[in-house]
Design goal:
Blueprint: E1 8-9, E2 16-17, H1 22-32, E3 36-40, E4 46-51, H2 52-61, E5 87-88, H3 97-100, E6 105-109, E7 115-120, H4 121-137
Parallel strand pairs: 2-3, 5-6
Antiparallel strand pairs: 1-7, 3-4, 6-7
Length: 138
């Protein structure tokens, strides 16, 4: 089944511009209680994923950095541990199962590689659960 039906559109996704500061990312993560967010560049393309771990590891590497200075550092300057792999809107939900094992969300891009939303891991699990129930009952 095509993933468009399961898409959480960009307008409903908590994402952050890659040229935002670390402080802005932390504040947004804290407010929404997320551990990871998609990064979007100025052109509207998916630019990666920022995690709380990426920020913590960067702070660990810079012991002289103080919280009050976090507004000086841009997210795009941070080394990232792992970027969530993006998929095309033309993908099928079954193709996302291997990605969902290690990603809380799967970024979705259109034919021009523009970020258009995400598929949540919980949505994939719900899809599989319904298929399992239908199989058991059918």
């Amino acid at each position: 089944m095509n993933i468009a039906f399961y898409l959480t559109p960009k307008e409903e996704v908590v994402w952050i511009a890659e040229d935002s500061t670390i402080r802005q990312a932390l504040e947004k993560m804290e407010y929404h209680r997320y551990t990871a967010m998609p990064l979007v560049n100025k052109e509207g393309k998916y630019a990666g994923t920022i995690t709380d771990g990426d920020i913590l590891w960067s702070l660990k590497r810079c012991p002289d950095l103080r919280f009050k200075d976090l507004h000086k550092l841009r997210i795009k300057e941070l080394p990232r541990h792992q970027d969530n792999e993006a998929v095309s809107i033309n993908s099928h939900i079954e193709d996302l199962i291997p990605l969902a094992v290690s990603q809380n969300f799967i970024p979705v891009v259109d034919d021009q590689e523009n970020f258009i939303g995400i598929i949540k891991r919980s949505t994939i699990i719900d899809y599989l659960y319904k298929k399992l129930i239908a199989y058991k009952c059918g």
